[in-house]
From TrEMBL:
Catalysed reactions, as listed in the record: pyruvate + ATP = phosphoenolpyruvate + ADP + H(+)
Listed name of the protein: Pyruvate kinase
Molecular function, one GO term: pyruvate kinase activity
Swiss-Prot/TrEMBL keywords: ATP-binding, Glycolysis, Kinase, Magnesium, Metal-binding, Nucleotide-binding, Pyruvate, Transferase
Domain of life according to the entry: Eukaryota
Cofactor: K(+)
Similarity field: Belongs to the pyruvate kinase family.
Keyword Nucleotide-binding appears in the UniProt entry: yes
SUPFAM superfamilies: Phosphoenolpyruvate/pyruvate domain (SSF51621), PK beta-barrel domain-like (SSF50800), PK C-terminal domain-like (SSF52935)
InterPro entries reported in the protein's UniProt record: Pyr_Knase, Pyrv/PenolPyrv_kinase-like_dom, Pyrv_kinase-like_dom_sf, Pyrv_Knase-like_insert_dom_sf, Pyrv_Knase_brl, Pyrv_Knase_C, Pyrv_Knase_C_sf, Pyrv_Knase_insert_dom_sf
Organism: Chlorella variabilis
Domain called Pyruvate kinase barrel: residue spans: 41-370
Pathway: Carbohydrate degradation; glycolysis; pyruvate from D-glyceraldehyde 3-phosphate: step 5/5
Amino acid sequence: MAKPLLQLQPPLLLHARHRSGVRLPLTHAAAAHPTPAATQCQDVPTLVSLLRAGVSCARLNLSWGTREYHARSLANLAEAMKQTKRLCSVFVDTVGREVTVRRPVQFDEHGWPTQKGEKKVEVEQDQIITITTDPTAEPSSTLFPVSYPGFPEIVEVDHQLQFGRFLATGAEGASLYVLEKTETTVTCVALNSAVLDGLLTVMICHTEDFSGDFALPLLTEHDADCIKYLGSRFEVDFVNLSYCNHEEDLYAARSFLDSLGMQYTKIIERKSSVRNFEGIANSADGIIISRGNLGLDFEPEASAMALLQKRIIARCNQLGKPVLITRVVDTMVATPRPTRAEATDVANAVLDGADGMLLGAETLRGLHPLVTAETPYVSEFGSLRPKMAGSSMQLNRILLTHAPYMTKLESLASSATRVAEKINAGLIIVMVQSGRTVSLVSKYRPPMPIMAVVVPKLKSTRLGWQLEGKYLARQTCLLRGVVPMLAAPMSEGSGGARAVEPGLAWPGCVVA
């Protein structure tokens, strides 16, 4: 049953799950600047509607907005979960090594940052543009002050740069060619015309080894401060590490996140991260394929991106690591329905074995964020997937590429999946203590939903008692086909009734 992920506001991303078939996480983002969608996507009634529609994961983006604004988003999400009695895991997306253009901002009545004065910057083809590290420089169509003071040191002549607003599409991105540089400036020529607005990010394209990645920190002070602040007041489950290109980066971040009880996912977005993918995938708790950023490093010819996506997804399936893709239905930024090509792209991702699709601009600043989350072809994908491919095909593919020997636990999980399919079970119930077993069952892609039952435990602290189990239950939301449920000690037989309530089972169905 496919689980879409949905991002509300750049701070808040939600992941909706389908009600039938195999769940697949799909992430949406909602309004990045003050439009009606921006306020509608943060208020409690809208979040309640989204949770009732199947949303199960929410992501905060630290690139834009204050920690107080993000805290308000999480407070509203907590209230929505309380009203709906539905679990929703929380992601935090870091700034990391992202370089941005310094532009003065002001805050609207909701606390959302907007650009002061003229919002849009028009760039003409063949126009000369200077990039400066001077923090006092006034930004204009010919002068871009950037946030990283060492920017000229990591850029070389003949490099190609991409400037664009967060999750840029179409004319919202400008390609620049580096002509010369000094200690504080980089002179470029624009390769295309563009209209730039909102938060402007910078990326160096087509680089084999980006030296700037070693100069920039993986976690900025702003990242660490926000993660600690939000984690101490709310419940954060995952941290998405941006621009992490080798395994060593993960070790430094792991100790910090482990101290806060958080897992992390890794965003694959540069050639170096693809080159070091094996070590990254083994260390991370999940993988996000940033197709937009990878498209700036890899040429689109010769189906490079298509083959790369298939290989990454296949390897994540073998490792049992959740994998999400981005840039799925960009046209829904302005239209209420996707193109046939986009629908086919989503279908191919499902057949490849992707665990989810991460929407961005569609709900970040799109005109139809809620419609995008409720698009019929998305909500029906869970039930269509078994018809298109079948569980056996994917199960056999994983088994054929698996190591000759399995652990006892994995052997049990794969056998349970095959038995459930042979007896035509409608539901698999897994009792969860660490999350490892339910992760392995999800790895083998059963065609029926998996109920992860977590029994909360009381833990003694210095100040009293603390209930544990909610973190574990929410973290299973990322797993394909898994529906987490917190269970209290109850009479025999009531667990089946609780499975019937959300439509996971029906009277008379076989449960494995």
